[in-house]
Amino acid sequence: IQLVLMGLFFYVHSVALIEDLPIEEEYHSLDEFYSAANAAYNQNAYNCWIAACIYVLTLLLSAQQFYVNSRVTAN
C-alpha cells in the first residue's frame, strides 16, 4: 500500500518528495529544471508502481506455494 501511495504522490508531483528526486542541483534555466523535475517525478512514480506489482506477484506466488505444500502434507 505504501509504494502505491508513494507512486501516486510522485505522479501528482508532491512537493514533499522533491528531495527524493535524482536531479542536479543547478540548471541554466527554469524550463530545464521543470523538465528534469517532471521526468524524475514520473520515473519515480513508475518505479514505485513496478515495485508494488513485484510485491503483489511475490505474495501470490507465496500463497500458491503455501497452498500446494499444505495439500501435499495433508495427504
TrEMBL record:
Topology relative to the membrane: Multi-pass membrane protein
Principal location listed in the UniProt entry: membrane
InterPro entries: RNase_K
Entry keyword annotation includes rRNA processing: no
One GO cellular component term: membrane
Protein keywords: Membrane, Signal, Transmembrane, Transmembrane helix
Chain segments annotated as transmembrane: 49-68
Molecular functions (GO terms): RNA endonuclease activity
Signal peptide: 1-17
Transmembrane helix is among the record's keywords: yes
Location of the protein in the cell: Membrane
Family: Belongs to the RNase K family.
Name of the protein in its database record: Putative ribonuclease kappa
